[in-house]
Every structure is written in structure tokens, then in C-alpha cells.
Design goal:
about 250 residues, mainly alpha, about 70% helix, globular
Amino acid sequence: MHCKYLFNGIEMSAYPMLLHTVACLWYVFFWSNFLSNSQTNEEDWDPKYRDINEMGYRFLTNWNLFFQTLFFAGCLFHDVMKILNGPNWLKLGSTFQTLLSLAFSSIILPTGIFVCVTFWLMYAYDREIVYPKIIDSYIPYWQNHGMHTTILPLILAELFTTRHKFPSVSASLVLYLGFGLCYAIVFLETYIEKGRWVYPLFGLYSFPIALGIMVFLFVLKLSFLFVGIFIQNMYWGKDEKKQYRKPIKKSS
């Protein structure tokens, strides 16, 4: 069932705006609570948790949360642009929509799927290699799900409610590789600076094997980019074919 309405002569679906509003409200609530965790007295922290907290911005989970927050805020802003429909808004909105779609296909979607899937697989195998039990004493369990579970239904809902115009595969790959390179630099710089890995998993192996695992995970994350493109084409491709299908003229 499609829920659409006309605003200033423009047909819009209510579902994307509803999703973007809920997502933004959720992240305002999440970040306000999550950041308050760091305001506790550090002298009372367990040394193991202090080492984990020190990594902060180096966790891919936090990168994903930050970019998802920016993305959904951008989506809501774009919805407002379409509603206002003022001078030059549509031209600007078209460019902004292209940027949102590029970010969604190359960073938001593959990273969100990767973080959720790999985290819970490793957590089920041995949580100490990815999310040590000591963290539960400082970060509520619901915030753990906010970082590693909620992210998936949000981006899947975005995929199925908003018809993004995915860019070419090459354009998505360029941005994906750029994002991956930036994180790889931070990841390796942390090991060089502190002599320990961001995630305990890598500390279980020698440096060459740890690099091999890193490359494997990078390729695995890349596969989720193509999964997203495939789902996008399968789900929205049918509507596009109907939209651009030419009527057959009946012979007289």
C-alpha cells in the first residue's frame, strides 16, 4: 500500500519523511544518553574499560553511527526542501539527493550491514574479541543494540521506502575505497602509536595474519555494497520499468 500526498503540486510519499523523522529523533535520544556515559568519573573506571574508551573515535561502529546520523539528518532536510519548494530549491534538492544517494550506496548501506553482521557473529563466537564483558558495567545493553542492531533495520527501511538514484558502480567504488582508506589509516596508525589493535581480535595473531584478516574484512564489506545495489535494482527496478514503459499502440 502506498501512502502519498500532494504538497505544492509535488507528489510525495509519507513513509520516507516518517522514517527520517523517527531516525533523527532516535539519534538525538541515543547520542544524548551515549555521550553522558563519558561524563562519569574516569578515576572509578576499570583500567580495561579505560583502554577501550580511549579508542573512542577509532571504532568503525562509531564511524558508522556518526555517518548514519548525518545521513538521516540530511534526508530530513531534503524532505523539508521538497515541502517548501521555494526558488531554486528543486535544483539544489536534486543535487543534494544525488549526494545522499551516493553516500547511501557507497558508505551508509554497506557499512551498516557489515557492522551489524560481523559484530553479532563475533559476539556469538567470543564476545571478548570484539566487545569485552567489562563494557556492560558502563554502557547499558540497550545502547549496545543502538550501536550494533538498530542500525540495520533503519538502513533497510530507507532502502525499501526511498527510491534512491544509485550512481554508477565506479562512482560508488571510488567513495567506498576513499572511506575504507581513511579508516585503514586510522586503524594502522593506532597500532603504530599505541602498540595495540583497536579490536582485541587482531591481537590474537601475528602482524601479517592480522593484516590478512583486515583485507578479508575489507573485501567482505565491499560485497555488501553489491548486495545493496542488487536489492535496489530488484525492488525499485520493477517500478522504473513500469514508469518508462511505452504504451503499445493498437492497430486500427
